[in-house]
């Protein structure tokens, strides 16, 4: 049974996650490929811990090796992946030429810097070929949407009057293009955290999270759905893909939810919404936390702490809606005797949390991101030895290194193309022009400007991996907010655009996570996406609070104020969840639903007047739902 489920998971990942659609190798070629990938992980450790190379050499050699591995693993078409031990001649040529282009720059970067835009015709040709080949890698591994955006920006640069030499020099031979900040962060921080995630996966920490969630919520009404919410929140601490989260844990949780009695579309939507939320869950936030620290010049610890409460509120909203849906449908939980004991489980396997604790503590006390990640990897290796079922063998150790390299390819390809967007924005100043356009369309009204920015983020974020998604948002849309609403803290603006870029994974029509979940449940992808969007309603509300009331992110506030915000927002989320589900203790008539949603929204806004208004509205609904029903029941009993 386990083998069958694994095959199904692999097939789903290949269908909905382009990064999983790799060539199949067997025998000696399989061993060779494995050790090439593992060697890349060793290279990443060397580059970050021992080398003193200039950034140009570090980044260009990193991209060059990514290209080589990409053409070794990823076919031009999905169907071609089924053929074993086969790489077509043109992929061999593209891999060698693409790698050669970036190593050419690595070996000649000093001369290129002196030439500036006076680069030779050969340099221009090498730059164009290199950009086109990394674009082809991105098409194969990530998909077309991000390429369309990048191509549109390049076309704009040409129409704005910039020469081929100037554009190629900026995008290929400077630290403002393909090997710009996104690749800089990817080659230093992100690659190590991806490797850490691979080691954690090999310790079976994902199964442990599902068991922990079962022990906490499995017995409750609609327990399996609550288990999905909790386990996906935990898995989000190390996973960088909402689709991988959905397929990985959803292959276990979705069938159990259906068996419990949940509608198949609702079951898939719960997993998709919860897995997407994993990308906003500290301490890693799909690796975007490290990019955000770099791009906002804000300490990582500050970002991780600021993100805690919004993430908890997000999952609280999903949890409550799952609860009300279970009550409405009369669904029960799993038998208690079939569930593991929380304390016994924590005592026997709780040590698997140690690497994450090591990561958070070391970064909080001032260790560099790279060193903290390496120490967390070392901790994962050590703690895996505590039990036989989690112990890393030489084979699983190499597999972890292999998977780390493989999972880096897609992120690096996306970051390279995101670097093109950053380079064109820097070259042309198009970001300010977009801000002026939105300012005109919004009529200077803050909430309208934020709404238009939200739409732009959702469109730009469709089908784009988390890290590249954030880079695009931070480059294009965050500056728009800072210009339209100048008093907005930089971190608040970046959190706003990051959240709306992420929810593109569950927002129709693209909604990759929803499509993956519906493939497991056998449901309707579009309906799954609509339900997932409703479940994730918090992600469409609280980003506005980031900008309008930055206290939500613990900016310029006090302990008392934080406690007040936590209490009022939680009550507000309770009311919104009940209003959207149309059920609390009993069915809510339409007018109570409106009052509950309005009251909840008022209480999430951190303002005394709105809190009072919201509390009055919610209290009225609460009395109607709970107190009056109890009295009528007593009268009937009398």
Describe the fold and architecture.
Helices cover 75% and strands 0% of the residues. With 638 residues, it is mainly alpha-helical. Among the domains are: 2-177, no CATH class; 569-638, no CATH class.
Quick structural summary:
The protein is mainly α and 638 residues long.
Keywords for this entry:
638 residues, disordered N terminus, mainly alpha, 28 helices, 0% strand
- What percent of residues are in strands? under 5%
Instruction: Specify the number of helices.
Output: 28
Radius of gyration: 25 Å
Largest beta-sheet details: none
* Morphology: globular
Task: Briefly note the structural class of the backbone.
Answer: mainly alpha
Transmembrane segments: 32-51, 57-74, 86-107, 119-135, 142-159, 179-200, 266-293, 299-322, 342-363, 369-387, 408-432, 438-460, 491-516, 528-547, 559-583, 595-623
Domain TRAP C4-dicarboxylate transport system permease DctM subunit: 129-556
InterPro entries: DctM, TRAP_DctM-Dct_fused
Protein name: C4-dicarboxylate ABC transporter
Helix/strand layout:
Blueprint: H1 2-16, H2 27-49, H3 55-73, H4 89-115, H5 121-141, H6 145-159, H7 164-172, H8 181-202, H9 205-217, H10 223-235, H11 242-260, H12 264-277, H13 288-296, H14 300-329, H15 342-349, H16 354-364, H17 369-384, H18 394-428, H19 430-442, H20 446-461, H21 466-484, H22 490-502, H23 512-521, H24 525-535, H25 537-548, H26 559-581, H27 590-604, H28 608-637
């Amino acid at each position: 049974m386990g083998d069958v489920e694994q095959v199904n998971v692999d097939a789903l990942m290949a269908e909905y996650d382009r990064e999983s659609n790799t060539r199949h190798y067997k025998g000696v070629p399989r061993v060779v490929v494995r050790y090439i990938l593992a060697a890349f992980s060793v290279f990443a450790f060397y580059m970050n811990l021992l080398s003193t190379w200039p950034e140009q050499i570090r980044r260009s050699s990193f991209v060059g090796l990514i290209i080589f591995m990409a053409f070794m693993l990823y076919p031009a078409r999905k169907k071609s992946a089924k053929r074993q031990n086969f790489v077509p001649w043109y992929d061999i040529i593209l891999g060698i030429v693409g790698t050669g282009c970036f190593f050419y720059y690595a070996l000649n970067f000093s001369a290129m810097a002196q030439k500036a835009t006076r680069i030779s015709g050969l340099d221009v040709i090498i730059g164009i070929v290199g950009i086109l080949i990394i674009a082809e890698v991105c098409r194969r591994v990530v998909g077309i949407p991000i390429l369309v955006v990048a191509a549109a920006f390049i076309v704009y640069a040409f129409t704005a009057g910039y020469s081929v030499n100037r554009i190629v020099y900026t995008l290929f031979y400077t630290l403002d293009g393909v090997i710009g900040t996104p690749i800089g962060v990817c080659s230093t921080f992100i690659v190590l955290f991806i490797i850490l995630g691979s080691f954690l996966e090999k310790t079976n920490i994902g199964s442990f999270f599902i068991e922990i969630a079962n022990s906490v919520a499995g017995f409750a009404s609609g327990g399996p759905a609550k288990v999905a919410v909790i386990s996906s929140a935990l898995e989000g601490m190390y996973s960088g893909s909402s689709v991988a989260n959905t397929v990985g844990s959803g292959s276990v949780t979705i069938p159990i939810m259906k068996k419990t009695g949940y509608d198949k579309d609702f079951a898939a939507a719960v997993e998709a919404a919860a897995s997407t939320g994993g990308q906003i869950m500290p301490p890693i936030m799909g690796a975007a936390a490290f990019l955000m620290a770099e791009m906002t010049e804000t300490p990582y610890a500050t970002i991780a702490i600021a993100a805690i409460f919004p993430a908890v509120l997000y999952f609280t909203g999903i949890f409550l809606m799952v609860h009300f849906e279970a009550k409405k449908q009369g669904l029960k939980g799993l038998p208690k005797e079939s569930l593991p004991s929380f304390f016994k489980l924590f005592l026997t396997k709780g040590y698997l949390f140690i690497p994450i604790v090591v990561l958070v503590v070391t970064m909080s006390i001032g260790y560099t991101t790279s060193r903290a990640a390496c120490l967390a990897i070392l901790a994962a290796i050590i703690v895996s030895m505590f039990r036989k079922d989690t112990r890393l063998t030489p084979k699983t150790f190499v597999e972890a290194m292999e998977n780390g390299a493989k999972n880096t390819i897609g992120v690096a390809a996306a970051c390279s193309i995101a670097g093109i967007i950053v380079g064109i924005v820097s070259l042309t100043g198009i970001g300010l022009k977009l801000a002026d356009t939105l300012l005109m369309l919004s009529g200077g009204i803050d909430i309208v400007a934020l709404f238009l920015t939200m739409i732009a983020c959702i469109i730009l974020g469709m089908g784009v991996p988390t890290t590249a998604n954030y880079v695009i948002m931070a480059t294009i849309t965050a500056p728009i907010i800072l210009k339209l609403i100048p008093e907005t803290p930089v971190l608040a603006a970046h959190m706003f655009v990051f959240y709306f870029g992420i929810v593109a994974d569950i927002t129709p029509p693209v909604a990759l996570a929803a499509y993956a979940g519906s493939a497991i449940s056998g449901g309707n992808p579009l309906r799954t996406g609509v339900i997932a969007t409703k479940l994730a309603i918090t992600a469409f509300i609280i980003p506005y609070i980031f900008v309008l009331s930055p206290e939500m992110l613990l900016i310029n506030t006090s302990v008392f104020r934080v406690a007040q915000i936590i209490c009022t927002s939680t009550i507000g989320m309770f009311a919104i969840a009940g209003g959207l589900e149309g059920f609390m203790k009993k069915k809510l008539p339409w007018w109570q639903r409106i009052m509950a949603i309005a009251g909840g929204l008022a209480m999430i806004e951190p303002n005394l007047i709105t809190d009072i208004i919201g509390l009055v509205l919610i209290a009225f609904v609460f009395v109607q739902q709970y107190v009056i029903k109890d009295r009528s029941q007593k009268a009937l009993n009398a």
